């Protein structure tokens, strides 16, 4: 359908062509001897209006009412000009073939259904306009991501999903193990039982990996190993966090894009984040016009203007210390009190981008070291680290990044200070022993980018199958 209607002439250039159209019935309107079937194949937002006359082969299926919303059809016919105001061309059908019937219980009928309801139908929601458009936009953003990094000489690295290290040190990891208790209520008798040592502790030597292993929270540490060999690299893959946050911005499984730049400092990192974000935003504005118009009309009014502004405008930069000053001077009453050393809450982030800087992305840098991860490079003041967060309106934190501590003695001291086990970071410390270089990188939550680009306010609606506390169906 995109092939036919996506051109500059909206299909008029294809008048008279004989074609086959395959797709799913969105609506069906029967008149006396003529039936209009709106068919969508997911290639674009537009449906194809298919006109079936009583002389079409297979018309009996139309007449008997066996073709209903949700059914899949294959139709032969010709492109003709349309009398309707909605489209320039329509499909005059000569033969209808039912591919798969749809039971009358098909839950997505013409009337509008809420996104909350559709979350319970995650297997069928891609058949709606909104979720079809989100899926295509997500695809375009992923493509633009690879395009941006490839054009700029970055090498894509596959970071592991199973790992023994906790990059963020926040203890929010899911454990991966073959040790399963044998007396759990409601589970069938498992293959393994949990072996205990004499002291009564879990005997991890009997586990598949021989020690606790986890789903990765970030591919950064692995990306650093490749950046200190291949120069600029990036990862793009799933990451996992067992944080019990039931918010519209948190998922237990989300995709992260993590570039890592060698011979680079925090300024290079911020420049890369800005160029990347502007590139992908421009890409979807230029290449996803139909879907963007849909979001602009139905999801967030004015989103096209807002994204166009972001694509051109210089981002605001300020230090954490200045951001705290700004919040302290704000007339607004915050639920979480503000003072130097506190982590910024989403109400603070929203105030900064939405009110203080009226819709412009803001990069905050040089955070107190106490609220940031162990690997960030200490600034000369001894109190802050070379960290940056990029905040955007409505979504809040879209990117978190930093210059990494490349000095062995500083890194070891920081691990000691945080009482982290230096032994388990031996390979990470090695990078500082053998040809260490200043390097920096960031992580961008891909779903938050999709939220930002579509205007959808709940993160559960921008990933096909959301994983959140208490919910792992489909
Ligand atoms: O700020 P975070 O925790 O940074 C890191 O993981 C670094 N290791 C990244 C790096 O420097 N390579 O996470 C990065 C981004 C956040 O800014 C946010 O967009 C997203 O990942 N994110 C989440 N997205 C959805 N659900 C969650 N639970 C998320 N946690 C973080
Ligand atoms: Mg962060």
UniProtKB/TrEMBL annotation:
Keywords: Aminoacyl-tRNA synthetase, ATP-binding, Ligase, Nucleotide-binding, Protein biosynthesis. It comes from Protea cynaroides. It catalyses: tRNA(Asn) + L-asparagine + ATP = L-asparaginyl-tRNA(Asn) + AMP + diphosphate + H(+). Residues 136-464 form the Aminoacyl-transfer RNA synthetases class-II family profile domain. Transmembrane segments: none annotated. The keyword Aminoacyl-tRNA synthetase applies. Its EC number is 6.1.1.22. GO terms for cellular component: mitochondrion. The lineage of its organism: Eukaryota, Viridiplantae, Streptophyta, Embryophyta, Tracheophyta. GO terms for molecular function: asparagine-tRNA ligase activity; ATP binding. This is asparagine--tRNA ligase. One of its GO terms (biological process) is asparaginyl-tRNA aminoacylation. Coiled coil: none annotated. The keyword Cell division does not apply. Belongs to the class-II aminoacyl-tRNA synthetase family.
